[in-house]
Amino acid sequence: MRRLNLEQAMSDLPNIQEDSLDPSTNPSRSPATRHRIFNESAFSSSPTASAAAIPTLARRSSSVSRVDLDFFDPPGVHALQRTVTHISERSAKQQKTQSVDSEATLHPGDGPFDLEKTLKFITKRLEEAEIERRELGVAFQNLRVVGLGASASYQPTLGSTLNPLSILEKIKTLRHPPLRNILDDISGVVRPGEMLLVLGRPGSGCSTLLKTLANQTDEYHSVSGSVHYDSLSPEKIRAHYRGDVQYCPEDDVHFPTLTVEQTLRFAAGLRAPQAQARFQTREDYVDSVVEILCTIFGLRHVRGTQVGNNAIRGVSGGEKKRVSIAEALATRARIGAWDNSTRGLDASTALEFGRALRIATDISRVSTIVSIYQASETLYNLFDKVCVLSEGRMVYFGPADQARDYFLSLGYTPQAERQTTPDFIVSVTDPVGRIVRPRLTPQEEQARPRSSAELAEHFLASPMMAKNLADITAYNEECAPGHKERVQHYKRSAQAEHAKGTRRSSPYTSSIFMQARAVMLRRVQIILGAKMSTMIMIATFVFQGIIVGSVFVNSPESTSAFFSRGGVMFFALLFSALSSMAEIASLFAQRPIVLRQSKAALYHPFVEAIALTLVDLPITFTTTAVFSILLYFIVGLQRTAAQFFIFYLFLFTMAVTMKAFFRAIAAAFNSPATAQSVAGIVLLMLVIYTGYTIPKPSMIGALRWITYINPLRYGFESVVSNEFHTLNGSCASLVPQGPGYENVSLANQVCATVGSVAGQNFVDGNKFIAASYGYSYSHEWMNFGIVVAFGVGFFTLLLVFTELNTSSAADTPVVLFKRGSKKGAALVGAAGEAPADAEKAGAAAAGGEAGDEAHAEIEEALAAAPPMTDIFSWQNLNYVVPVKEGKRKLLDNVSGYVVPGKLTALMGESGAGKTTLLNVLAERTTTGVVTGDIFVNGHAPPRDFRSQTGYVQQMDTHVPTDTVREALLFSAALRQPASVPMEEKVAYVETCLKMCGLEAVADASVGSLGIEHRKRTTIAVELAAKPKLLLFLDEPTSGLDSQSAWAIMLFLQQLAANGQAILCTIHQPSAELFQIFDRLLLLRKGGQVVYFGDIGKNSTTLIHHFESNGSRHCEPTENPAEFMLDVIGAGATASSVQDWEAIWRSSPESAKVQEELQRIHVEGRSRGAVQATFQNKYATPWIQQATRLFRRDIRFRWRDPTYLLAKLVLNIVAGLFIGFTFFKAKTTQQGTQNQLFAIYMSTILSAPLSNQLQVPFLEMRNIYQIREGPTKFYSWSALVTSAFLSELPWNIIGSSLYFLCWYWTVGFDTSRAGYTYLLLGVVFPLYYTSFGQAVAAMAPNAELAAILFSSLFSFVLTFNGVLQPFRNLGWWRWMYRLSPYTYLTEGLLGQALGKHNITCSSVELVHMDPPSGQTCGAYLATYISTAGGYLTNSNATSGCEFCSTATTDEFLAASFNIYYSHHWRNAGLLFAYIFANIIGIYALTYFFRIRTTSIFTIFKKRKASK
């Protein structure tokens, strides 16, 4: 087929060009590059363009690799031809009377289909409609970017945070923040249709340059210099055309539950031009764009597949990259900046990504700017220009094909014969990685630039810079800034695409109505894609409705249930209103997507808030209806239609209002932690000041104002008054009654309930709520209006915050040193004195470069390391795992060996089984069946094989707050035998630090290091254990830049040269990296071996194997690693005709491997088996493991002041707030109830505290599961013991602070403080610490742990006898006795409140008249002696004032089943619960995380044994 020109498949059909490129003469999909001089005329304006059109900017001639348009999906492009044919047919039919040029189109019936002529027809029609095309380049001169923050600092601790001197230092830093130059004096130009590659080491400023050129500079302190886009200023672009300039981060962030097609349709639809500019209906346009993009980028087979993320299975990594490209193209951006998008991809997929970008640039005639850390030569050849940065300075900007010669002219030479051009030119910026050309003259040596400043100065004075400036000048002349004609042309072109109803100056193509409709549809698609979440939410409402309803089931219309009915109203309102608080985390998860798409001018951010609210309304309506119906009718509330619907109306309105409130809080802040903290504090205020826990009359004046700004209070008043308005509760307790009062008339009795009237055996609900809460039914609709007003206000704030707060919190990377470190102090001082030329702290603050003396120390340390002498081998390995469809074989008959002193590479495409084989060999598999043999010297591996090997994982998993030295010492102390003296272990740690080049950062925290030093630390941690047999490494260069990867591989080569046996998987090695390896084991998909053997000098042995067996020729400049992967059919869209696995099996090389294996086994068996170093499972005793872990855990928490301060501040703030809310509670009945709720609210505090402590518990467990457990550092039981003991002191301190702030503020007796402190300050934190960790032991992550804890916690709170008193619990009394909070609440309440007298307030006194001739005292004496209570006027003969409870014991026993005498029993039972929780931590950890045998397998074995 004919190759399409750069506009033929563009998502913007109006901009299709006429001229097309020459037909492809090579239909092969081989990655061999094809060079040709770029045909500038192919991209000129069409000859039929209108005279008013602005000339298209000519692209400078360059020699770059071209990519066929049908590279990813040849059959799809042929199908696309038919689609475009249909478009032309429909268009022709619309011109019934208009003649058509024979050149315009050629229908299938007229002869062979010609896509070029068809598109010419479309172009001609668009020109007739006078649609102007537009394009955009960027020119920048003397660009300087200044950022905030130092590059090195001290590790914060709780002590340093609370130190007054540190606080003063922070205030000083806030007033005069440290500044650092990120970019300095950068100049260049990128024209439409050009691709610019930005190269540099991490910290050189690559990402900053991309963001600046993409006009995203908000995060920087200042940006100076000249930047303009064609004739437009950055301000004009941001205000009116920001959708034409996009920055694409390295992470592919999409809504995971949307399909590929939905993702593309959304972008295409919102950026679709108006009807005149489309030449099609909107639906047809979107269909065409999606069809074209899916076809060109090989996504047709995954159109209906979810994009996915780490938690949701979706498309592959390479496909996700292409989705990101396609989405950006669907938005029709004119400038695209792509930041390190090949990270983590294998070589074949990375190359496919580059080809996709080349296609995108050619088709769309966009300006493309890309930064890549590890670029292959083939990938590099796709670019027109390259910009090289070093410490923020520009050391080269010019044609990509001239960069190598320029850097050679500086006096440097490649490190290896096949070193790629990008690796070479970046190596020149690295003082350690570069190589000076031999035999330089003294003059050349003196002139050779060394530092970044010298390299930049040399380039600025070079002819290359003069050409660069001339190019900028030429560009400026073609499109001078503010050029009125060009600006007007661009403006007309953009405005011609605006939909009706869109402001002419708006950067958005679609109107707000269209945006809202599209975003609402997307929200529905997101919900449908995650049906399980919606089902779980509905199930939660059903579950809670049934449970709570059954607790209050068939509540009697009696005064005994008045308190319970209030509890039902409170819970119903609270649950429906607060269920949205969980949305905060998901709102922050989607914020990067919303912000990216709003910057792409797809829609206003506030439209997302509108769509979220509108789509959520029917869901909220449904869930609230289900919950209301269940709760209302199970409890037996007033069964009239009006009251039920009013109840439901308020629940629904309150739910919507509070959702808007919590969403507004999320939108107002930049980090989820801050939003959650604020939401938690506000939640506490709302709950307490609703009016249930403390009625308004009892509130202190200083805090009563909170109730007026609390929407829950108005909702609570309305649902309570709605229920009690028609309720005349029959009196459950008439005074007096019982023996001696059988013949007393009702006129001489009164109900002992607030609001009662003498002579009535019922209590009017209206009077009850008026006396108890100060509520009135007359406020019903006024309250509804207030709630609606709150809802409107919160919704308005949500829209305002969403639109204006368009940023997320971003941490500035800083290397953090331990206080007291001399090297750290020097680096911190240097960072504070002068600006650091670094974008990221990783490399810049890691210390100085190693000199000759340091290299000598490393060599000496390597020589001192114990050499390995044993040979590790494996034969006929197969690995089968169970899957849904049955079984899947991941490894198929794999054999090989690793010899000490040799570096063996394990390679293959993604999914070939590299990491799987590494895990099988390292005995790290937990599922499936492994067959075959693994040997050490021809014998079975020793029982402590895992302890005698080192395993360096791809992910650098460490305790982030530990210093490098501490991490190494922890490994050495626990993994070297206990018999080795500690002094010797410490000395060997210092050796490892030197060996790995980590001395400069030995006292820096691992989590703050750059990626190279973190990788070195991971390797050093394994070396510190002194592995005797083998060192496994999984992707040690993944995510590194080329120079860091080179440094790591050179270090591994040094290790191998000193006797280490190393087996290493690697993704995308350059030619020189590949040459470092001695041997290669190559796998293809299915875990099949296609090669094992020597690589040979310049890879000749490997290349000869493939070429001699029928592969294509490997070009001299081609990377052998890429060559072999391409030959075997690796890559997302590649395949191979030959069966290379069968070829290998029948090859003489395979036979030689089997012979060598036999020889190794025979020779090894003569030497004897390798003995176990120690007989126990672990190298050190359990007590030593637990002690080391406890020290580390304590240190981890001490160095995380945010965590500790959150814990302590929450306790202090809650203690003061609850304390002053119930300040000096009176001795009345209500005062006693207030004290009850003061204690009840204190127990609720365990929920946020437990959620907090689960996070570090899970973090440490993850480190154990990922790295330390499989490597046999320590026992899992030691980990659990340490986690519990290290958390406990901080929780006891927090609860103690709470007690001090709360106890005397509420007004409890000092004489009772001791027991209360024991329960609240010691037993309570013991309980919630053990319970929270036991729940976390079941959960895989913190989110699920929080959900599990909330569900279980709601049970213990619901059934502790406060919300529903014991006397009314009915069937659920067994749960009351099972709930530990029953005994905690009884212990605290009984001890703090028991044995006190109650003095009723005037409202609580009930009035009655005694029979004629009797005094009040004489009349009620018998009743008081049996039922309790007291009279205030015993001698009166009328108007008796009776208080139903005389002591707190009467009140607590009658209503809540609480007795003072049970306090020590309760303490003992709580200790029993704590013990059970601790047992639960161990049992649940083992069952859910340690156990490897299925329960069903155990049962089967038992059944078989019987």
TrEMBL record:
<dbReference type="InterPro" id="IPR013525">
    <property type="entry name" value="ABC2_TM"/>
</dbReference>
<dbReference type="InterPro" id="IPR034003">
    <property type="entry name" value="ABCG_PDR_2"/>
</dbReference>
<feature type="transmembrane region" description="Helical">
    <location>
        <begin position="781"/>
        <end position="801"/>
    </location>
</feature>
<feature type="domain" description="ABC transporter">
    <location>
        <begin position="165"/>
        <end position="416"/>
    </location>
</feature>
<dbReference type="GO" id="GO:0005524">
    <property type="term" value="F:ATP binding"/>
</dbReference>
<dbReference type="InterPro" id="IPR043926">
    <property type="entry name" value="ABCG_dom"/>
</dbReference>
<keyword id="KW-0547">Nucleotide-binding</keyword>
<dbReference type="InterPro" id="IPR010929">
    <property type="entry name" value="PDR_CDR_ABC"/>
</dbReference>
<feature type="region of interest" description="Disordered">
    <location>
        <begin position="1"/>
        <end position="51"/>
    </location>
</feature>
<dbReference type="InterPro" id="IPR034001">
    <property type="entry name" value="ABCG_PDR_1"/>
</dbReference>
<feature type="transmembrane region" description="Helical">
    <location>
        <begin position="1344"/>
        <end position="1363"/>
    </location>
</feature>
<feature type="transmembrane region" description="Helical">
    <location>
        <begin position="1273"/>
        <end position="1293"/>
    </location>
</feature>
<dbReference type="GO" id="GO:0016020">
    <property type="term" value="C:membrane"/>
</dbReference>
<feature type="region of interest" description="Disordered">
    <location>
        <begin position="87"/>
        <end position="109"/>
    </location>
</feature>
<dbReference type="InterPro" id="IPR017871">
    <property type="entry name" value="ABC_transporter-like_CS"/>
</dbReference>
<dbReference type="InterPro" id="IPR029481">
    <property type="entry name" value="ABC_trans_N"/>
</dbReference>
<keyword id="KW-0812">Transmembrane</keyword>
<feature type="compositionally biased region" description="Low complexity">
    <location>
        <begin position="41"/>
        <end position="51"/>
    </location>
</feature>
<feature type="transmembrane region" description="Helical">
    <location>
        <begin position="641"/>
        <end position="662"/>
    </location>
</feature>
<feature type="domain" description="ABC transporter">
    <location>
        <begin position="872"/>
        <end position="1110"/>
    </location>
</feature>
<dbReference type="Pfam" id="PF19055">
    <property type="entry name" value="ABC2_membrane_7"/>
</dbReference>
<keyword id="KW-0813">Transport</keyword>
<keyword id="KW-0472">Membrane</keyword>
<feature type="transmembrane region" description="Helical">
    <location>
        <begin position="610"/>
        <end position="635"/>
    </location>
</feature>
<dbReference type="InterPro" id="IPR027417">
    <property type="entry name" value="P-loop_NTPase"/>
</dbReference>
<feature type="transmembrane region" description="Helical">
    <location>
        <begin position="568"/>
        <end position="589"/>
    </location>
</feature>
<feature type="transmembrane region" description="Helical">
    <location>
        <begin position="1204"/>
        <end position="1223"/>
    </location>
</feature>
<dbReference type="GO" id="GO:0016887">
    <property type="term" value="F:ATP hydrolysis activity"/>
</dbReference>
<protein>
    <submittedName>
        <fullName>Pleiotropic drug resistance ABC transporter</fullName>
    </submittedName>
</protein>
<dbReference type="Pfam" id="PF14510">
    <property type="entry name" value="ABC_trans_N"/>
</dbReference>
<dbReference type="InterPro" id="IPR003439">
    <property type="entry name" value="ABC_transporter-like_ATP-bd"/>
</dbReference>
<feature type="transmembrane region" description="Helical">
    <location>
        <begin position="1313"/>
        <end position="1332"/>
    </location>
</feature>
<feature type="transmembrane region" description="Helical">
    <location>
        <begin position="526"/>
        <end position="548"/>
    </location>
</feature>
<feature type="compositionally biased region" description="Polar residues">
    <location>
        <begin position="22"/>
        <end position="31"/>
    </location>
</feature>
<dbReference type="Pfam" id="PF06422">
    <property type="entry name" value="PDR_CDR"/>
</dbReference>
<feature type="transmembrane region" description="Helical">
    <location>
        <begin position="674"/>
        <end position="694"/>
    </location>
</feature>
<comment type="similarity">
    <text>Belongs to the ABC transporter superfamily. ABCG family. PDR (TC 3.A.1.205) subfamily.</text>
</comment>
<dbReference type="GO" id="GO:0140359">
    <property type="term" value="F:ABC-type transporter activity"/>
</dbReference>
<dbReference type="InterPro" id="IPR003593">
    <property type="entry name" value="AAA+_ATPase"/>
</dbReference>
<dbReference type="Pfam" id="PF00005">
    <property type="entry name" value="ABC_tran"/>
</dbReference>
<dbReference type="Pfam" id="PF01061">
    <property type="entry name" value="ABC2_membrane"/>
</dbReference>
<keyword id="KW-0067">ATP-binding</keyword>
